[in-house]
Amino acid sequence: MKLTSNNKQLDLSKPQIMGILNVTPDSFSDGGRFNQLDKAMAQVTALIKSGATIIDIGGESTRPGAQEVSLEEELQRVIPLVKAIRESSDVWISIDTSKAEVMKQSIQCGADIINDVRSLYEPDALDIVAEAGIPVCIMHMQGDPKTMQNNPKYNDVLHDVETFLTQRIDECVAAGIKRENIIIDPGFGFGKSLEHNYRLLANLERFHQYQLPILAGMSRKSMVSNALEKPTSECVIGSVVCATLAAQQGAHIIRVHDVNETQDAMRILAITQTNK
C-alpha cells in the first residue's frame, strides 16, 4: 500500500511516523512551545532527524474544550511554516485543519496531506480536497472539541465508528475524492471514554476491512494519562506502548509527539515480526 501526492510516494508496507507540530498557544501537550517560526523549524529538523516521514502541522487546538480560532489567525500560524518547510525539505507535510481556505492555501504552498478531525464537513472542504487530488485523513468524532468529552455514549463503539466511516468514505468518493487517497482514523480521544478508546485499540485490526491506510493517534492523550494515573508529561512510555500495539495490528501511520522513542519501538517490532 502506498500514498501518492505531489509526484512522490510514501511506502506504507511498514508503519510511517507522523510527527506532531502544534503551532498554537493552547494545545494540550506542547501548546506555546513552537508558535514562533524559528522554533517551529528547529522542531521540524529534530522530528525528521528522529525518523518522522510526515510532519503534521496544527494551527488550531482540538483538545477537549478547545475554543475555535479565526481563519486569519490560523492562516498566519500555518502558511509561513508550510512555505518554510517546503523550501528546505521534501518531507511529507500534513495539515491538521477543518477550514477549507487553510486547506487550499496550504496545498498551494506544497502540503501533501489534509488531516481533518471533522472529516471534510465544513463548507467547501470536500470540493477543495477533491480538486487538489491529494490524500486526506477522515476521522470519527462524536460531537465537537468543545463538548466531545462530556459523557460520550455509544450503542457499540466499534459498530458506530464503522458505520460513520463507511458512510463518509462513500460520500467522499461521490464528491470526487479518489478512494485510494482516503486515510481512516477511528478518532482516539475524540468523544470517547477510556473504555471506548481501549476497545478501539484492542480491535484496530477490524478497520482493515476498508483496505485503506489506517492512522492511529494516541500520543500523550487522556486515554494514556488517565489509565496510568499520571500527568501527560510522564506518559511517554505509555504512549509508545499504544503506538506499538497499533502498529502490531497493522496501523500504517502513527501520529506521535515522541518520534525518537516511537522509532526505536518500531525498529524492535520490525525485527520481531521478521523472525516469526
UniProtKB/TrEMBL annotation:
It catalyses: (7,8-dihydropterin-6-yl)methyl diphosphate + 4-aminobenzoate = 7,8-dihydropteroate + diphosphate. It is an enzyme of class 2 (transferase). Pathway: Cofactor biosynthesis; tetrahydrofolate biosynthesis; 7,8-dihydrofolate from 2-amino-4-hydroxy-6-hydroxymethyl-7,8-dihydropteridine diphosphate and 4-aminobenzoate: step 1/2. Keywords: Folate biosynthesis, Magnesium, Metal-binding, Transferase. Residues 15-267 form the Pterin-binding domain. The keyword Magnesium applies. It holds the Pfam family Pterin_bind. NCBIfam families: DHPS (TIGR01496). Catalyzes the condensation of para-aminobenzoate (pABA) with 6-hydroxymethyl-7,8-dihydropterin diphosphate (DHPt-PP) to form 7,8-dihydropteroate (H2Pte), the immediate precursor of folate derivatives. This is Dihydropteroate synthase. It comes from Vibrio rumoiensis. The gene is folP.
